[in-house]
Design goal:
By secondary structure, the chain is α+β, with helices and mostly antiparallel strands. It is about 50% helix and about 15% strand.
């Protein structure tokens, strides 16, 4: 299979390049090229401004019978973006620039005018020196004098700057190092002070915690020293106790007093003298009654009868 993009083509042995027909194209034919405006211009027809760098589809042709040192000169045709008037300009290889022909005017450019003026002065001087040796000597004397004046002015400016600004670079470096050292010392002192404050706060907190722990331990010891309540007491005995007993119990322990006071605030006291004392009644012990049994009754009746008949026998029975 042959290559799609062939680099080397086949030429047969009987190939004769002179037999290839040549195209007869006109010398002034035009090409369509894409270019940008080489300078700022203004259309003469409508006054539209065309700025440098604007793109156009231009027609390009070679200028006939016009060369510069063997280099051809090209002409370009563009159209105004507003009125479609034709504008032409051509290359200027002598000045490495473009020259406007017709259809627009080139805008003012100060740099170009300055360059042209310098070039004109240089050219006139060269023409004068070419035929006048005394002019050459005069120009050289003027140039040397101008150069000496420029050097003197420059030296005066340097001395003036030195008098006005006495800059000691070594002193500046030393001051900078001193300021840097002081800044480091200040930061170190601040760190130490902050660390000390944090340690002091931690110590105070630890002391407070230890004091609170000791207080709670003493309270627990006091509570443990108080007499424990008998396990035989019933939960409802607190309802039937008197105020004096409650006061005595609460004086012995803070926890019991708090319980009694909270109970009294909620429902009041339930003693014998209180408003709710009649609702609770103490259980009284029942009286024991000895009922005579039938056998004992019969024995007593027999003893009574015997005593009536024989007092001695009744005494013996008893």
């Amino acid at each position: 299979m042959s290559e799609r993009k062939v680099l080397n083509k086949y030429y047969p042995p009987d190939f004769d390049p002179s037999k290839i027909p040549k195209l007869k194209l006109p010398k002034d034919r035009q090409y369509v090229v894409r270019l940008m405006a080489p300078f700022n211009m203004r259309c003469k027809t409508c006054g539209e401004y065309i700025y440098k760098g604007k793109k156009f589809n231009a027609r390009k042709e070679t200028v006939q019978n016009e060369l510069y040192m063997g280099l051809p000169i090209f002409r370009f045709y563009i159209k105004c973006t507003r009125c479609l008037a034709e504008i032409t300009f051509k290359t200027d290889p002598e000045n490495t620039d473009y020259a406007m022909e017709h259809g627009a005017t080139r805008n003012f450019q100060a740099e170009k005018l300055i360059e042209e003026e310098e070039k004109r002065i240089t050219q006139e001087r060269e023409e004068e020196e070419l035929n006048n040796p005394m002019k050459v000597l005069e120009n050289r004397t003027k140039d040397s004098k101008m150069e000496m004046e420029v050097l003197e002015n420059l030296q005066e400016l340097k001395e003036l700057n030195q008098r006005q600004a006495q800059v000691d670079f070594e002193g500046m470096i030393d001051r900078y190092r001193e300021l840097e050292r002081q800044e480091k010392e200040r930061e170190k002192e601040e760190d130490e002070r902050e660390t000390k404050e944090m340690l002091d706060r931690a110590l105070v907190k630890r002391l407070r915690d230890s004091d609170s722990d000791s207080d709670s331990g003493s309270e627990k010891e006091e509570e443990s020293l108080q007499p424990n309540k008998s396990s035989t007491d019933k939960p409802t005995d607190i309802l039937t106790t008197d105020r004096s007993t409650e006061a005595q119990g609460t004086s012995s322990g803070g926890v019991k007093r708090a319980k009694v006071e909270s109970w009294e605030r909620s429902v009041g006291t339930l003693g014998g003298r209180g408003a709710l004392g009649s609702l609770v009644v103490r259980k009284k012990p029942a009286a024991t009654i000895n009922k005579p049994s039938p056998v004992t009754t019969a024995a007593a009746a027999a003893a009574t009868a015997t005593s009536q008949t024989d007092p001695k026998a009744s005494t013996a029975v008893l």
